[in-house]
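Case study B.
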Amino acid sequence: AQSVAQPEDQVNVAEGNPLTVKCTYSVSGNPYLFWYVQYPNRGLQFLLKYITGDNLVKGSYGFEAEFNKSQTSFHLKKPSALVSDSALYFCAVSSYQTGANNLFFGTGTRLTVIP
Amino acid sequence: EPEVTQTPSHQVTQMGQEVILRCVPISNHLYFYWYRQILGQKVEFLVSFYNNEISEKSEIFDDQFSVERPDGSNFTLKIRSTKLEDSAMYFCASRAGGHPLSGEQFFGPGTRLTVL
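Model:
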């Protein structure tokens, strides 16, 4: 069965430091990988996706993520964290195993950037 | 910037009552979804809807659930007889088109349903 793991419920990082939010997945076939962010009282906002091609994908607000097929990972990164990056981050995957039309989510990681 | 909107933001109901959760997807989008998140758990797919019919549904989406696009702008989720375990945050999402696996979905802010 498919799965998405976000091993850290909470990540704290100092403002200006690099941040990483981890995600690993398990799915049959080629994965399509997504990161979404949720700010308080807002919907999930799309950050970036990996479909095919270059393993390093760049997204909104300076975030990037690296697809690693051998480690089945898709970690979210940012070189220099901002206080405004504090939010809940969700990794998600779709594939022909999850169904042609839906996203399979991880449990989310709460990022807190400390001023 | 267009957004998916959902009403109400919070719904409290008694067990056994019917509830309707409402969503207004982005206007030119073609594909519509409902997801839910039980507190502390992952976001789970419920159902997808395209061309006025359900295109896919999960095991969670049993006979007590139904969806409708009554007027070309709203997209509703009805739970006929709520149970305690239906308490969750319900997210609506929409997608413009394109490849079903790779096109990004746009999410609403959610409706928190509390069943007492």
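Residues 22 and 112 of chain B are 12 Å apart (CA to CA). The remaining cases will be described in the next quarterly update.
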